[in-house]
Every structure is written in C-alpha cells, then in structure tokens.
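To the team - adenosine-5'-triphosphate complex, inputs and output below.
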Amino acid sequence: PKSRMAKSLFKPNFKFEDLGIGGLDDEFNRIFRRAFASRIYPPSMVEKLGVQHVKGVLLYGPPGTGKTLMARQIGKMLQAHEPIVVNGPEILNKYVGESENNIRKLFGPAEKEYKEKGDDSQLHIIIFDELDAICRQRGTKNDGTGTGDSVVNQLLSKIDGVDQLNNVLLIGMTNRKDMIDDALLRPGRLEVQIEVGLPDEAGRLQILNIHTSKIRNNGMLENDVDLLELAELTKNFSGAEIAGLVKSASSFAFNRHVKVGDSANVAPDFEDMRVKRDDFMNALNEVKPAFGVADEELV
Ligand code: ATP
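Output:
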C-alpha cells in the first residue's frame, strides 16, 4: 500500500536536541504519539487499528511556555507546510459574517491540495492561538452580536469536515482551558488535550542552555556564570521569561561601555563585553515571573 506522506516525513538525521525546546520532552512525545505517529503509515494500516488520525489537539497552560514553539518545530520535523497561525481575537471581526469567512479561508489551502493530490498531500497545520477568545461570547445571551456563537459553530463544522481530509491538523492553544467550549473538546475534535506548564529546574537549565548557546559559542559568556545557579534562581519563570532574562543580561554587558550621555564613539573593550554573573543578577532584578509569585509570597 501507498505510504501516506511518508516520503515527506522526518528530516534525515533529526535530533530532538536540535529543536531548541527545553524541558518538554514528555509533552512533545505525547503530541507526537497522539497526533503525528499514525500519519507515517498508509491510511489502510491506520484503519486496521480501527482508528482515524487525530484531527485536533489542544495545548493549554500559562503564556510563554513553548506551546507555539513545539507546534512549529513538529511541523518542521515532519516537513509539513509552514503552519498557518491565527489568533482568536484577530479572527473576530465586527462585520457580521466576516469572522466565519476567516475561519473558512483557513482550511482553503488544505482542501485544495487534498482535492488535487489526495493522500499524497503534505500535512497542513493550523495553529489557533488564544482560542478562548472566540468561545467567550458563546452561550451568553443577548450580547448583541452573537458573533462568538456563529464563529465557534463555523469552526466546529470545519473540524467535522476534516473527516474527509487526511492532511489537516488543528492545534488550539489557550491559557484558559476552562473557557473553551465543551463542544470543541469532544472526541473527533480537539480530542487530545495536553497541559504545557511552567518548567521545573531541570527544564529551566535546558532552556538557559538553549538561550545562552549563541553567546557561549561566540566566547562571550564569562566563566563565572553558573547556569545551575540561574536555574535555581528562576523558579516560576516561563521559557519566554528565561529568554527575556538572557536578553536583559546582555543589555547590561553592552551598557558597560555605552551609557546615556556618553559620546557614541567610545572604543568598546571586547573583553569587558562578556556577559557575567553580575549581569544576570541585575537582570534578575529586572525580569520577574508573571505567574506563581503571589503564591510564593503567601508562604
Ligand atoms: P502564548 O500562550 O503566549 O502563545 P506559548 O506557550 O505559545 O505562549 P511560545 O510562543 O512558544 O509560547 O514561546 C515564546 C518564546 O519563548 C519562544 O519563541 C522561545 O524563544 C521561548 N520559549 C518558551 N518556552 C520555551 C522552551 N520550553 N524552550 C525554549 N524556549 C522557550
């Protein structure tokens, strides 16, 4: 039997480490097993196991934890089309009917390719960020627009229609799983739900390693920087906040030579441009985690 998409799946010599995702091995493996592994096999084989490809996944958890990063990197790994990323609030349009139209258009390229190539079509990943935004209005009476309702309905009808398409995967994301309409979470829709939480210390160490790798490889990370120590000090930081911390530390290194009021042509001393432990300590005063701090202070 013809191997569906197999020829385009997996970049040769693929390694998880190369994806630049820290501390999410379990989550990544779960998404892969639930939503992608079956796509390597021909449809006849998948049917033999009495299943269908999963059409939708919901990734939920605090902002900046790597949800979008994972979705994009899985797409790259499988040589899928560049994912289409849409944002809930953007889809909502004040013009009646436009939001529904926007939803319909999202699926257009996949539908077209499937018509032409059938199971030889490449995978189309549609990432729906801030999915909760379109659910917010559903069921609330007399809000004047009813927009949320019809947008969710349009999305539901599109997802249900994906039965006829083997080349689409919808990945919804939210920080508020409780806001997501139950109808969207039923089997056959966004049926796989995976929590992506804040990284633990081991995860933070991996993320610190990833985000300092460039400075380190360029010889610009001072030896007194201890990533293990920083992993301990960044409790409750998300991946995005750790990335922000590294940027802040670099800015302190730059600032050693160019301060407000200095003439712009100071000759920088490159030795002194290295990012040091002190820079990270200054950065820790500047970049604070958005989540979990309140709980911490109560203790
Ligand atoms: P949002 O809910 O705000 O959309 P998200 O969970 O989708 O957040 P991303 O957009 O994936 O977050 O993360 C933003 C950036 O933060 C990434 O591009 C990356 O630089 C960094 N980052 C976040 N999590 C990780 C991680 N686990 N490993 C490495 N980098 C990370």
